[in-house]
Amino acid sequence: MEKTVQLYEGKAKKVFATDNDNYCIVSYKDDATAFDGLKKGTISGKGAINNQMTNRLMQMLEAHGVPTHFVEELSERDTVVKKVSIVPLEVIIRNISAGSFAKRYGVEEGIVFDAPTIEFSYKNDDLHDPLLNSYHALALKLATAEEIDTIKAMAFKVNELLKAFFKKMNIDLVDFKLEFGRLPDGSIVLADEISPDTCRLWDSTTHEKLDKDRFRRDLGGVEDAYAEVMRRLMDSSK
Ligand code: UDP
């Protein structure tokens, strides 16, 4: 399959049309942003890692009954995905307090929750992705009640599968963001990416951060952290 016109360029990926109207090609970039786009930088090798990591995780999820947009990895950075219309919600699942949760509720990072939490943000750059609940999402017609139920159930299932998968790599899955899409038949599939850009990943033994917080907080060793997660992922599939 070949790229035709570029449909969209986001912060970390470009999306191209193909000769088949049912498919797109996503191309992962090394560009990184944080704090609502205020901090910009490059993480060398990130595009290739995030592409390959996302694809391996999506295939694992598919094997456990989670429908995803994944079709075929074309190259280091490029992947064919099903064309979807993205539900304009960022779905965040948390297992351990960190980031904006810790800030918002005035608690330290690292509190292990008895049960995972879910929250939604309205995916809207102009409004800076405001937090909303499912009633707001319904009122704004961002999704139907049935779609919201499906998305919640899928997100918690993805959490259980990812948590167990990362644990085998001696990594704790702290929190992560998912996006979902609608296929032409109206069914909901997991879309976007699952990578150290979109997950907080802590080494289970040392609690070292192995994710984008190294970039956000200028902790150094950003490239090494991404490569380390990829190395453990490859080792775990040997
Ligand atoms: N996240 C993301 N994209 C966003 C916002 C959050 O991928 O636009 C991920 C983030 O990497 C973390 C989780 O969602 O793994 C929870 O992020 P949080 O709400 O704590 O916000 P942050 O501290 O990243 O601003």
Protein described:
The chain is an alpha+beta fold and 238 residues long. It folds into 2 domains: 3-82, Phosphorylase Kinase, domain 1; 85-236, 2-Layer Sandwich (D-amino Acid Aminotransferase, Chain A, domain 1), CATH 3.30.470. The chain contains 6 helices and 14 strands. The strands form 3 sheets. Strands 8, 9, 10, 11, 12, 13 and 14 form a 7-stranded antiparallel β-sheet that branches. Helix 1 runs parallel beside helix 6 (222-236). The protein is globular, with a radius of gyration of 17 Å. It starts with a strand and ends with a helix. Uridine-5'-diphosphate is lined by residues 90, 92, 98-101, 129, 175-177, 198-200, 212.
Give the helix level as a range of percent. 25-40%
Number of domains: 2
Q: What order do the SSEs take from the amino end to the carboxyl end, as H and E?
A: EEEEEHEEEEHEEHHEEEHH
Q: Any idea what the CATH superfamily of the largest domain is called?
A: ATP-grasp fold, B domain
What is the second-level CATH architecture of the largest domain?
Answer: 2-Layer Sandwich
Low-pLDDT ranges: none
Beta-strand residue percentage: 25-35%
DSSP helical segment count: 6
Instruction: Note the main sheet.
Output: 7 strands, antiparallel
The overall average pLDDT, rounded, is 98
What is the CA-atom radius of gyration, in angstroms?
17 Å
What is the approximate shape?
globular
